[in-house]
Amino acid sequence: MKNKYSIFSLIKNAFSQHENWKQAWGDPEPKKEYEAIIIGGGGHGLATAYYLAKKHNMRNIAVLEKSWIGGGNTGRNTTIIRSNYLWDASAGLYDHALKIWENLSQELNYNIMFSQRGVMNLAHNLQDVRDLKRRTHANRLNGIDAVWLNTDQVKEFCPIINTSPDIRYPVLGGTLQRRAGTARHDAVAWGYARGANEMGVDIIQNCEVKGIKRIGDQVEGVETSKGFIKTKKIGVVAAGHSSVIANMAGLKLPLESKPLQALVSEPVKPIIDTVVMSNAVHAYVSQSDKGELVIGAGTDAYVSYTQRGSHDVVEGTLKAILELYPIFSRMKMLRQWGGIVDICPDASPIISKTNIKGLYFNCGWGTGGFKATPGSGDLFAHTIANDEPHKLNAAFNLNRFVSGDLVDEHGAAAVAH
Amino acid sequence: MFLINCPYCGERDQSEFSCGGEAHIVRPKQPTELSDDQWAEYLFMRKNIKGVQLERWNHAHGCRKWFNMVRDTSNDKIHAVYKMGEKPPVE
Prior knowledge:
The complex is a heterodimer of chains A (about 425) and B (about 90).
Chain A: H1 7-14, E1 33-34, E2 36-39, H2 43-56, E3 61-64, E4 80-81, H3 88-101, H4 104-108, E5 119-123, H5 126-141, E6 147-149, H6 151-157, E7 173-177, E8 181-182, H7 185-198, E9 202-204, E10 209-215, E11 218-224, E12 227-231, E13 234-236, H8 242-248, E14 256-265, E15 275-278, E16 283-287, E17 293-299, H9 311-324, E18 333-343, E19 350-353, E20 359-363, H10 373-386, H11 400-403
Parallel strand pairs in A: 1-12, 2-3, 2-13, 3-9, 5-15, 13-20
Antiparallel strand pairs in A: 4-8, 5-7, 6-7, 10-11, 11-12, 14-17, 14-18, 15-16, 16-17, 19-20
Helix pairs in contact in A: 2-7, 2-10, 3-10
Chain B: E1 3-6, E2 10-13, E3 18-22, H1 36-43, E4 52-58, E5 66-72, E6 77-83
Antiparallel strand pairs in B: 1-2, 3-4, 4-5, 5-6
């Protein structure tokens, strides 16, 4: 790496008041033609470009981002990383990602602040208990760490939870994945951008795709706000706007785009050192390094691209949070926002070729895409470079909606999504 | 979050309603003769429009009647509400 970050570079730059750090990635104008173009400069798109350059030696590529990199769902999620999915296909996919997360700061030479603080999923009724125990067994058979905790063990692991049997949805136990945790979301986008740019990838911001040109069944390039760019391979990683891009190419996808909300509180001293999720009452909470409680709310139940979300959704989540954590009753919420998530009918992603040559889609991550960022990029890069899926993403093809071979993670995925 | 003018009850809070997704998807007349591709199209593929979309809504916590709506999904503005069986207003 040309500008390797280390303790020495930090000390050196301290002497010049940190005013002489070099730009981490460039701001080029688009070339006339690229070997491949990635549409969408979020974590998944930048990771795709990074692995295309690193593992498949495709250096003449560009990432097109309509605003600034990491400004969409990458900057709007609650940064939770876990791989405790029920079905084999999902377990393979998400644990592949988790294994990359574990060494990503070193690989990128960029501190993504990956913290394996554990993720605990609570059970509030008998069916939850049965489902979560079943998932624990399934996880362990797939080599994913998971343990079942009874109510006392839940209380011991996270003492601020109200485990009284008198609350409306009492805590009957929970599962814990210790390898799970959080990472700094912006750093993930920036780390991948820097890494990709170092290998020659052009990252072009403020460049919106307006159309996809195809001749017959082969893509020929993209119309953008910065002019026409020729290419034979297009990887679309546009999250909530995937259908918009698909429509440009005359394709329909099995997606619905909905606002998903999150919110953070005022910062306080460390009070919760893990991530606690509850499917039944839909509340999940962790604490950022700045001290804010990071709270994930639900989606609005209708298609919308407004990046806002409804107040009643936030209200419902906070009611559940307050019953589970009475200690938070006087905390003030600081900020609330929404991101547009593209949801598949089976709540699993699509990392797939299409019936148009050279057009690939990585979408449908719904409400849980952040955790998969490195794995998603790696497998999508493999799919684009070889024109064939990797065995880990073969099940996540677009054709499953025709064949009926769905990966139904609705409710099975440890939280409603 | 917005107000919806239910054709039967008048203006109510959106939280009283539930959305039934894209409108005017016709149920196949001869289900036994459908190919897998046609089933996929009917069951799963959606326009998911960013802009003006026709959709079905149900006044779940009110009269419980279904109706159609013309809504701009890019800003949540409702352009028109019309009853089931009626043609969408042309604009």
